[in-house]
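Notes to self after the Tuesday call (sharing in case useful).
The group wants a holo model before anyone commits to mutagenesis around the pocket. I volunteered. Ligand is nicotinamide-adenine-dinucleotide. Logging inputs and output together so the record is complete.
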Amino acid sequence: MATSTAYKYKEPAPKVDRENPLESMMSRFNVAADILGLDDATYNVLKAADKQVIVHIPVTMDSGEVRVFEGYRVVHNTVLGPSKGGIRYDKNVHLDEVKALAAWMTWKCAVVDLPYGGAKGGIICDPTTMSAGEIERLTRAYTLAMKDVFGPDRDIPAPDMGTGPREMAWLMDEFSKTVGATTPAVVTGKPLVMGGSLGRTEATGRGVMVSALAAMRKLNMKPEESSAAVQGFGNVGSWAAKLLCEQGVKIKAISDVSGAYWNENGINIDEAIAYKNAHKGRLDGFQGAVLMEHAEDLLTLPVDVLVPAAVEDVITEHNAHDIKAKLIVEGANGPTSASADPIINEKGIMVVPDILANSGGVTVSYFEWVQNRQGFKWTEEMVTERADRIMSDAFEKVYATSQKYNVPMRIAAYVVAIDKVAQTYKFRGSF
Ligand code: NAD
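Result:
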């Protein structure tokens, strides 16, 4: 491993918009591998996924028609432990994207020092047009097809886009029947009554808040004198906004698919959440702020902190020049395209990257798995206190690495993660 502190940071090669997520991830991985002086063997092992399983799942639809769905499970790496990662139900699921997300999970678990590798799954389907019965049959058939991949010591799925506690309960039930024993630790994100963890719902937003505050301390920004804009008002965005607000940060803008809402005096986040809950999870018609003409302008508002917590590739080379925030905390996975990295770095904006900022979710998923294996339920205080400590420690480690190599936080996070995985390979002597 290179130990020099005089590494000359080279920007990842700029890329075109709507990047292939795998290439986007690899361009950052390559820079970090270069800094570490990663040997060819380890580089080649980490570049490729350990395992890719493609299944075709026949499901009888309510109409009587049998439809065949394509599903994936990609296990990127298991050197640190069983692989962990969500299952996505979406019509745009693509194998390249699943591969990128699986690798992302390896780095995310390594950054926060969890004993897990990385995986991701997906099924090409449109759950918004399917009945609960159809989704249940699909979930159970996918679980059966993946029975030799999943397992509490092998590969532990979780919810992702289009899936939630309901699907995880079906998955747990089907897997348990297959092995002949109730096996809650095979999956996380379960309903609370059947082995889910307290604190899981808010965990990702809470981690965003903890890492935002840690970054603000480094930048000498006082929360009570700072403002923020939060893109996305789902699980991550609404919790991040609420918890940042509780720390004194003035949330001047929020958004969801219905548009962006601005209030110079600060939005009452509890009111916005209550409004959303009463209106099918959407902010349409919210009166506590002004509806902005162009929702994407939220990203370039004059605020101190920007929290993209919706979808990927929203900060690109087209709008990065106009960003005014001093700090970006990535609640979403991949909200910044690789082409925007050099522009953001040039402007001196600190970015707490996705693999660090949104890892509070997988951290509490890990706690769920530990509780299931212990057969003992932790209090919410235990969950929160332990998760906050893991997030703070990870932030400090990534920050120290960014100082040591004089690189942005994103590259530093990859350096921390890849170094841990590479060192483990050396000790295990796997090849
Ligand atoms: P969610 O479905 O609960 O919420 C998504 C929100 O984004 C909704 O408010 C939706 O209306 C909004 N949205 C969608 N497209 C938008 C757009 N173009 N502009 C503005 N808003 C838009 O999803 P979530 O669980 O909050 O996840 C959000 C992001 O965080 C995703 O990238 C996800 O992969 C990532 N993430 C989630 C978790 C978790 O624990 N939920 C953990 C890690 C990462």
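Two things stood out.
Confidence is low (pLDDT under 50) at residues 1-6.
The pocket of nicotinamide-adenine-dinucleotide is lined by residues 204, 231-237, 255-257, 295, 309-311, 331-333, 358, 361 (CB under 6 Å).
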